[in-house]
Amino acid sequence: MSTKYMYSLIAVIVLVLLAYVGVEAAGLQIFFGVVIPYLAIITFVGGFIYRVMEWSRSPVPFRIPTTCGQQKSLPWIKHDKVDNPFTAVGVVIRMFLEILFFRSLFRNTKCELSEGGKISYRWEKWLWLFSLAFHWSFLVVLIRHLRFFLEPVPASLQFLEKIDGFVQVGLPGLFLSGAVLLVAAVFLFLRRVYIPQVRYISLAADFFPLFLIISVALSGILMRYFAKVDIVGAKELTMGLATFHPTIPEGIGGIFYVHVFLVSVLLAYFPFSKLMHLGGVFLSPTRNLPNNTRAYRHINPWNPPVKVHTYQEYEDDFRERMIEAGLPVEKEL
Amino acid sequence: MSKLPKSDEYFSKIKHDKTSGAEWMDTPTVIREGMFCYAAKPASVETLGLPFPREWNPLHEDWKLPENWKEIIHKGFRDRLERFRSFKVFMDICVRCGACSDKCHFFIGTGDPKNMPVVRAELLRSVYRNDFTKVGKILGKLGGARELTLDVLKEWWYYMFQCTECRRCSVFCPYGIDTAEITMMGRELLNLLGLNIDWIATPVSNCYKTGNHMGIQPHAFKDMLDFFVDEIEEVTGVLVEPQFNKKGADILFITPSGDVFGDPGTYTCMGYMILLHYLKVKYGLNITWSTYASEGGNFGLFTSNEVMKRLNAKMYAEAKRLGVKWILGGECGHMWRVINQYMGTMNGPADFLEEPVNPITGTKFENAKSTKMVHIVEFTADLIKHGKLDLDPARNDHLKVTFHDSCNPARGMGMLDEPRYVIKNVCNNFYEMPRNCIREQTFCCGSGSGLNASEDMELRLAGGLPRANAVKYVHDKHGVNMMACICAIDRAVFPPLMEYWVPEVDVTGLHEMVANALIIPGEKEKTVDLRGEDILDKEKVGTDEFYTRPSFSGR
Amino acid sequence: MSIQLVNLLEQKKTTIVKKWFDLVVETYQPDTSQFLKSRKDAFANPVGNCISQNLGPLFDELISKMNYETTRSFLFPIIRVRAVQPTFSSSQAIAFVFSLKEIIRENLKKEIREKQVADDLLLFESKIDGLGLIAFDIFMECREKVYSIKANEERKRTFSAFERAGLITEIPANRSSLS
Lengths: 333, 555, 179
Description:
heterotrimer; A: mainly alpha; Fumarate Reductase Cytochrome B subunit; 2 domains; two-stranded antiparallel sheet; C: mainly alpha; 8 helices; 76% helix; 0% strand; disordered C terminus
């Protein structure tokens, strides 16, 4: 057992107990149902903006895209407009593929040499696949939860729920996104434990959000399928939060508050952690700039004045020998 | 120094405790012979007015650091966070997914887990968290933070000079985190304490004073080229006449000085001379060399952005003084990273030059219209495409060629198909290495970014293993006997690398092959190539069973 | 060597070679050794691939005639890599050869007792000693190569420096000997 994930696991368990006991034993519904969520949202929004502003404050002195395809050069050479963008449109497509489909992780191939020396390529897909599953299902779950903050629930949302629940297992119908989220998060966790290289580089800060998200998903699933929390009451509470008329309806189980508390912790933790990669990926200078510095000059706001060794100084150093060698000089001896 | 281990140490090493799994922060770094380059000589540091020149030895306990070194690093770190968004963002957003971990040639070759790109970055990040983030400060080691100590500094130095800034990891990173950028920042910080290596500091100082890394003085530079003139005449019967520092020439030609001084780069240099001569007699193109701007490469890139700017300034200064229309650059790796991504920004705008147009073909080099510097491979490809070069590729029939994409043109520029087009037009036998080690996924030579000294040969040989391994594959499969490349460091470092791993394969620049295939007006019948090796009788060469020459439809 | 032992070793070949491979890669740091084991890609993981490709044939050679040249050709690639990996001392670089003894003893414990092949095993172990000697030769050869490459580089550099300083006026007759 590594201390790295033990600490994170214990931290998450403590958080769960805190909320449960706080609500069930100490009756702190208002604190966990109103105060904490508001604080978390404020921290999240404020922190997120602050972090992005902090990054933006540092200038981009040089245009340093990592080029992953053929540059634009001669007209008859096929230019890779996406992996080596020359225009803003190319950059947008590159970022789009990167952010929505994890283009770079997708690139992970490995090639194998079979008997007889024939090469075949195998695509290293697991990390890509599960990260994609993780992030997309997270997004769907997030959007689905908008139903708790909107009245009436928009048709588009109902449509999404319909698709998400198309397998129609159990009652209430199983949402695929929740299950996928849980499975993918567990995969990402096991990866960190079982692949030694990844274990070697993992920090407690890598396990904590994973445990947190796993417990959020678990508590959500528990609520929906097993504990069957009073959904009307829950919506009353969330609508109260959304309309700034917080109310605490009676009889929503403690597990609901645990769920809300864990989400709040996740939100509040977000801006101070690696989860900020959500914002950072948009600002990464190796991806969000076109490779066109030879055609359009990029300006460095702090371009430092430097001391150079001028031609005149150079000629002064070597004039005699230059003349002797028959090299032209500016100033004769 | 005795290398014999004590018996208990010996057995503990052989029988690794499988459950140990120590964390990297708890594994002390031992600086090992063969893995590092010697410390910068004080004189070289002094020339540039960089801080703390002194004699010091990485193997000694005492690195003779200034008393307030921690403060200097802390201030330097903050300063760089404020000046480089890349640095700041890369310090914050890594999720340690591990996609990069097995992409580094140094990790693959040396087996040292601290050579995983993510760990290399964590070396700096751990201190960043401690010094610049509250969460890190509070959580300490649990949050992946640690204090900057002398051991940490030494670890930085050891591993920042075990990265060739090749950017291969950056290709696979979902956020584009570029270890090259992190290494550059790390080296800038180390330079604040005078902790450079000599193999970088001395070329930089030479280049500053004499115009090139080798420290070749103007008359000697001319001597060297004159010597090549004789060699060329011997082989081809043609007298080429390079011009130097010629005012009013059309184009200024700048190439890395490594090609003027070391085999087999010298043959590439002769290749340029032959091509330039050909263009002069056939099309009246007037191209000049310069002794002042006699270095295309820029080891400043491996020191700090300021030093890079100081060395690079000569190119425009000389172009302006000579009144040329635009600049043509030779085959070099990091030189083109600098020209493509830094030069215009640092020393531009080059409004005293014209937007480059190939006067022979009329092609406008749109992609270089601001920096006004064209890569010679772009230039030659354009000439070939327009049928302006008289080529006999059969003269290279004794070669079975593969192409090594040099890191910087591949991942800092994207010059992938131009060199292939040129190769396929000047030789008949061309074989690609496997896809996951060419083009943007190319493996580094293991000696770039100023690590091509001889004292770190073990590091170079181990780091070059992934590349050599792929070369060995095409050698075994297709009988490849020549690896072409467009980088002067490659040409200097691959011969020893090949000698160790695949001794049957030699190294060439692209323009050596171009020149060998070029039919020069007034040439005598060629029997040998520039290296004095026999060119096979044409009749004797059968069509290769593996190879049919590809046709080019539009590319 | 009796046919009995040979048969025994042939039967157990897969297990023994697998253990041997594990032992070789475990001479690297744990995190690295897992990488070496996990990726069998010849290009992305040349070290692991080289080990796994050569140990089997090497073992075959050991239980058959053990021709010097062939044996050497399988041992050479592995040692050539280890000779430039500075985490190893010289003895550590070739120790994996001898660890084969231990693996065989462990895996044939029962058979050795039952089938009374202990004497044969001693014979076989001296073959492994022979392998160790070949390994030693290869290791030294590789190290000498590294040093000669280093020396040659230095020589080239010094020569260039002299030439640049104008101390050498004549062009050396055979330039290629320096490269």
